[in-house]
Amino acid sequence: DIQMTQSPSSLSASIGDRVTITCQASQDIRNYLNWYQQKPGKGPKLLIYDASNSETGVPSRFSGSGSGTDFTFTISSLQPEDIATYYCQQFANLPYTFGQGTKLEIK
Amino acid sequence: QVQLQESGPGLVKPSETLSLTCTVSGGSISAYHWSWIRQPPGKGLEYMGYIYYNGRTNYNPSLKSRVTISLDTSRNRFSLKLSSVTAADTAVYYCARLYCSGSTCYFDYWGQGTLVTVSS
Questions:
Q1: What is the pLDDT of residues B42-62, one digit of tens each?
Q2: B91, B116 in Cβ contact below 8 A?
Q3: Which of A50, A59, B78, B115 is most buried (CB neighbours < 10 A)?
Q4: What single-letter DSSP state applies at residue B75?
Q5: CA-CA distance, A69 to B70, in Å (whole number)?
Q6: Minimal CA separation from A32 to chain B, in Å
Q7: pLDDT by residue (tens digit) across B2-39?
Q8: Between chains, do B47 and A36 touch, taking CB under 8 Å as contact?
Q9: What is the C-alpha to C-alpha distance for residues B10 and B115, in angstroms, rounded to an integer?
Q10: By the CB < 8 Å criterion, does A46 face chain B?
Q11: Contact B110/A98, CB-based, under 8 Å?
């Protein structure tokens, strides 16, 4: 299985801050990576697919980049409603695998 | 707008079979891949498997031969069965639509999730 390693596992930031989360794959996955946002008690929500494409309706402050084994997810200006846990997920090989998550909190 | 809703028992005894159903509304199940994903309390997400509308399945090898996903097109729903459960199978279970087109795949619609506890 492809292992996905996210960092940090938790992050505290202030409103308006630029926030960056990284995800590293254990092998080359090209751009076959998605990012999801999960709020407490809810199912995850797709934000970014194919490493850098925004899902319809997702605010422009969310973006993704990277290819191969190293990927980055960025929130350009943190808003209160962005408090959630964020997951990366690879679809290069089955079984699909997720990172362990990054819990984002307000400082 | 496609919506998914999980249903089934919230408590299952060890060694028994966990059974859940996902009802799809706002769209036909006779297209796309339909998946189950679970999340143990306080932990990350684990892909369990999918079923394509033509009946083709894929299962996570970590679940070995314990998992079965089936489709009921007449009721626009799909189901999960997980046999020989243990406490390690306690989790929130999500159903999700897996959209695949060309070289891309992503889970674009998710249910709210249902907590299943394995305990005697």
A1: 899 999 999 999 999 999 999
A2: yes
A3: B78
A4: G
A5: 34
A6: 7
A7: 999 999 999 999 999 999 999 999 999 988 999 999 99
A8: no
A9: 6
A10: yes
A11: no
